[in-house]
Specification:
Helix 9 crosses helix 10 and helix 14 (272-287) crosses helix 15. The chain has 17 helices and 11 strands. It is α/β, with parallel strands linked by helices and 381 residues long. It folds into 3 domains: 2-209, 3-Layer(aba) Sandwich (Rossmann fold), CATH 3.40.50; 222-305, Tyrosyl-Transfer RNA Synthetase (Orthogonal Bundle); 315-380, RNA-binding S4 domain (Structural Genomics Hypothetical 15.5 Kd Protein In mrcA-pckA Intergenic Region, Chain A), CATH 3.10.290.10. The protein has a 6-stranded mixed beta sheet with strand order 1-6-5-2-3-4, with helices on both faces. It has a 5-stranded mixed beta sheet with strand order 7-11-10-8-9. Helix 4 (88-102) links the parallel strand 3 (61-66) and strand 4. The protein is globular.
Amino acid sequence: MSDLLTRGVTNVTPKDLAEKKLKAGKPIRVYLGIDPTGAHLHLGHSVPLRKLQAFADAGNEVIFLIGSFTAMIGDPTGQDKMRAALTKEDVEKNFENYKKQAEKVLDFSKIEIRYNHEWLEKLGFEDIAKLASHITVQQMLERDMFDKRMKEGNPITVTEFLYPLMVGYDSVELDVDCELGGNDQYFNMLAGRTLQKAFGKREKFVLTTKLIEGTDGRKMSKTYDNCVYLDDDAHDMFGKIMSVNDELMGTYFECCTDVPMDEVKTILASSPREAKARLAKEIVTLYHSAEGAEGAEVNFNAVFKDGGVPDDIEVIEVAEGAKVIDVLVDKGLISSKSEGRRLVEQGGIKKDDVAIDSIDAETEEGIYKVGKRKFLRITHG
């Protein structure tokens, strides 16, 4: 029980209720809700997913709730403007992609999937007015993002005020003992706790999981290019984790691995290089295999420790006169010409360890390196 309420956890509200329910020795009803907005899942997303799976493995009744209705409204959490609404077709397509990635963490044979359009699309105006009577405007305005937008003169729609009520009503319909989610969802989850009481349902506790930083110590975000994605290949995943700031290793071990915390303390007492290699192997093993982790470590050492290149470097044949940037974009080593221009200016694209100095450079035969971990051998046909 202790790990369920502590490992990777920021807050349990109220804690005494949680302990009482778990000590009773009966399965409790737990859910995690997500709005499938097309997110490319990274290790930060995995933290609440891993906690949900832990509750399932402990024999509890676990529900994975898809915000098939609320995703069409848009969660205002952390937004400085209204989030774009989605259609039902968007939601269905996004969840199909989300589920494929989430299956790397969740065993859906142990987890029930529900959709909140089942009840939310049936609510009439009278029902919504009744819901709204349980939350005050003052409570809504306490939310940081609303306060910030008001001070900046940016609009806040009534629809955004309704969002916490909608996701709160999910708790009423599911009648759960526990709702878990990321720390950024705390307000929404407390709204559900309030509504369950108001509708005479069982009393639930709220469990929030830690938010982990990206490889550079900032919020893990695609914007910052600091994410470890769940579908990264083994070599890239290993390399990214090896670039994590040393001070983040404890949190990564706690939230992203199954290594016992007593053992984690011993690991962290060793050299940072050895501790980080162990962390990388643990995570790569979870999302790939032990063999994949071993191969990724060998590859990493060959490139970064011994100054070599990967054994499995891709070889392509291009016509003479082809532009380096065009080839790298086409092969996916860089996302765009603008990224290529930035990397060239920073000396981040090299041919045989010599930085190319022009965005218009033509290919020559040899090994090209982009950043720290991407390689391509080019030959001319």
